[in-house]
Design goal:
By secondary structure, the protein is mainly β. It has one domain. It has one helix and 15 strands, in the order βββββββββββββββα. Strands 10-11-14-15 form a four-stranded antiparallel beta sheet. The protein has a three-stranded antiparallel beta sheet with strand order 1-2-3, with no helix packed on it. The chain has a three-stranded antiparallel beta sheet with strand order 4-5-6, with no helix packed on it. The radius of gyration is 19 Å and the shape is elongated. The two termini are 25 Å apart.
């Protein structure tokens, strides 16, 4: 992530961070991929309204595509022999948090909520995240507030 002022020159196709004194560094635009969180985006997830998305954009080619962190609709479980919606992804703000480190990328939905599996309906805003550790090839859900599994 760049901090401070930066300038872009499309004709030179480089991104340069500059201060009042001197140029600090330059990147070739052909190698820059930008991840953009869009928390109110609609995607192809079945029956999900404004679930949010993360876009992967190539700076040099001016195009973006949705990163497929989660392609599923809401989950349903049988509770007392009734097929019950237990997951609520509409308006979850997926992409409100996007972090990267090396090839690992984490994207989160802070407004995701989950219905408990008890007889009396009760929902918790637990949030959920998806993690890719191999450069956006595979994804795993990371939801410690719901599953109780913490990374250690």
């Amino acid at each position: 992530m760049l901090r401070g002022g930066c300038s872009h020159s499309a004709s030179v196709k480089s991104l340069t961070r500059q201060t009042a004194r001197k140029t600090l560094f330059t990147f070739l635009l052909s190698s820059i991929i930008i991840l953009i969180g869009a928390p109110k985006a609609n995607t192809s997830q079945l029956d999900i309204i404004e679930g949010g998305a993360v876009y992967q954009c190539s700076w040099s080619q001016n195009n973006c595509s949705v990163v497929s962190f989660d392609q599923q609709g809401d989950r349903y479980f049988y509770i007392n022999d009734v097929n019950t919606q237990v997951e609520f992804k509409s308006h979850q703000w997926f992409g409100a948090v996007v972090r990267s480190h090396g090839n690992s990328i984490l994207a989160c939905a802070p407004r995701y909520y989950w219905r408990t599996e008890h007889d009396t309906p009760f929902s918790d805003v637990t949030g959920t995240c998806y993690l890719s550790v191999d450069g956006l090839k595979t994804f795993v859900e990371y939801a410690p507030c719901r599953t109780g599994e913490l990374l250690g």
